[in-house]
Specification:
heterodimer, A: about 280 residues, mainly alpha, globular, B: about 260 residues, alpha/beta, Rossmann fold, 9 strands
Chain lengths: ~280, ~260
């Protein structure tokens, strides 16, 4: 070891984005270097080939089958990674005590939460784009159609990917929020419940109408208004399913709706982290 | 030393009064980890907090850094409440048995640490090179920390604690896991920091290191500061055995009083 420890004087962070970026890059590296990601890539490859095999068995519907199976694979894989990686996002830092190294530096809770969120979101974006590109290639190889037809198909894939990604952004935020105060297993349970309830929001609304007990009526109404209504996503998907594109108003509304939920969840996660002691 | 620095150097860097901290143990039983602890550390001083396992040494550091909140009492670190962001810019911390992100290499981890302070570019890279040389990790800098030995992790931990050129350093058991050469190196680095006027606050079980490095020693047991003295008062020759006697005298004293 050298005796000299002299370093030039520090001009400390005036830019609050630098720590967020550092945490995001670190999270991105952590997930990207995790072998789980590559296993899922393999899974996507297999699913697409499965689509090819099934497609060749059907008459004239091969592209349809490849597209449907491929998109199903992408949203399932994306969903699994979002839930599991998201549920570990904050918890791992607490368990491994790396949070000591972060919170003894001038880093605010919101910078930590936002950095972790952006890191995982970008990682998932790359993953989804990679799988989407693979799907497009498979479709092209199965049916090297005219440029016009191909453009339509690419538009379809692009929009479906966008909707899937928007939904995953919400799921990551939910998982991160739950992981600030519960163990990974409980975070997974909470996040999946949150997701499923979101997809059957209309039933909650229906319940609040059916209940005669005022307390139960109130409770289901509160739940309906607090939890996100993800059924509009399904509706948009259904439109795409029939080869049509959703209107730009619907896409814009969906994006704004989901992003608002993401912001609320991240603010809550930051508040929990701010209050939390690190024993 | 200029007049301004002389005035500044007389100020206390750490001032804690009547700190009390309880934690919940098994079956929700309340355990008092710290009980009315008061501490004062002057600028430029090397302060050693010694005590048996479970005495509350790590809890004290965590309270001073704002990782935990005291149930009662007041704390000022560099004139600010614990966890104050401006004060944290001037503080370095080496946790006990540090663990770093195993997916990062040593160099990547130091870059990450520097960026959390808002450092970047050439300045940060130069600083990293310098610190890697200081802690003798240049050859292993591009290996993932998952493959590091305990001693190497401790060295990397020290490097990240120094990345912002802190005024005040908190070292939690800095010698643990180090071989004799590593311990000697760590001592040399702390000596060097002392000579640069940095304030160092450290916890240790290893009395020879405390005797060799500290100007003042606090003895913590059962969450209470049993005794505090300048090392000169205990042993002008910085004799570890004298410190050991001081330690045993105060640790044993309460038990002897209770014994019939």
């Amino acid at each position: 070891m050298r005796d000299d420890t002299s370093v030039p004087p520090v001009k400390t962070a005036a830019n609050p984005i630098l720590p967020v970026r550092a945490i995001a890059v670190n999270t991105f590296r952590e997930v990207a270097r995790d072998k789980v990601v590559y296993t899922f890539f393999l899974f996507a490859v297999i699913i697409s080939f499965f689509g090819l095999a099934l497609g060749s068995l059907s008459v004239g519907q091969d592209v349809r089958i490849i597209l449907d199976l491929g998109m199903c694979g992408i949203s399932t894989i994306g969903g699994i990674i979002a839930v599991f990686a998201g549920a570990n996002l904050v918890y791992k830092e607490l368990e491994k005590k790396t949070c000591y190294l972060i919170f003894t530096k001038p880093v605010a809770a919101w910078q930590f939460i936002l950095g972790k969120y952006i890191g995982l979101s970008i990682c998932l974006l790359f993953l989804i784009l990679g799988m989407g590109a693979f799907l497009a290639l498979t479709v092209y190889l199965a049916d090297p159609a005219h440029l016009l037809v191909m453009t339509e198909r690419l538009k379809w894939i692009g929009l479906s990917l966008l909707l899937t990604y928007l939904e995953l952004l919400l799921i990551i935020a939910a998982a991160e929020f739950f992981s600030t105060f519960s163990s990974p297993i409980m975070s997974v349970v909470f996040t999946v419940s949150f997701w499923l309830i979101g997809h059957s929001a209309a039933s909650l609304q229906e319940l609040s109408r059916i209940f005669t007990n005022p307390a139960m009526k109130q409770l289901s109404a509160v739940l309906y208004w607090t939890l996100p209504d993800l059924q509009s996503l399904t509706r948009a998907r259904a439109v795409i399913m029939y080869g049509k594109l959703p209107t730009s108003e619907l896409t814009l509304y969906l994006s704004a709706y989901l992003i608002a939920y993401v912001i609320i969840l991240l603010v809550l996660a930051a508040l929990v982290s701010e209050k939390r002691e690190l024993p | 030393m200029s007049e301004a620095t002389a005035v500044e150097s007389s100020k206390a860097v750490i001032e804690a009064r009547d700190l009390t901290k309880e934690r919940e143990s098994f079956l929700r039983k309340r355990l008092r980890v710290l009980d009315g602890l008061s501490l004062k550390v002057e600028r430029g001083m090397t302060y050693g907090l010694v005590g048996p396992n479970g005495a509350g040494k790590t809890t004290t550091i965590k309270l001073l850094l704002g990782l935990l909140r005291a149930d009662q009492g007041s704390i000022a670190v560099l004139g600010a409440p614990p966890g104050d962001k401006a004060a944290l810019c001037k503080i370095g911390f080496l946790p006990e048995s540090p663990y770093f992100y195993s997916h990062l290499t040593g160099r990547e981890f130091l870059t990450f640490s520097g960026q959390l302070y808002g450092l970047s570019g050439k300045l940060l890279n130069e600083r990293i090179e310098q610190l890697l040389a200081t802690v003798s990790l240049q050859k292993k800098a591009d290996e993932r920390t998952g493959r590091y030995s305990k001693g190497m992790l401790q060295r990397l931990g020290l490097a990240q604690a120094l990345i912002n050129d802190p005024e005040l350093l908190f070292l939690d058991e800095p010698m643990s896991g180090l071989d004799p050469i590593g311990r000697m190196d760590m001592r040399r680095i702390i000596e060097d920091l002392k000579s640069k006027g940095k304030t160092v606050f450290f916890n240790s079980h290893l009395l020879p290191d405390v005797a060799a490095l500290c100007e003042r020693v606090g003895l913590l047991s059962g969450g209470k500061l049993l005794a505090e003295a300048a090392i000169e008062e205990i042993s002008p020759q910085r004799d570890a055995r004298a410190l050991e006697e001081f330690f045993l005298k105060h640790i044993k004293a309460p038990t002897e009083e209770v014994a019939p």
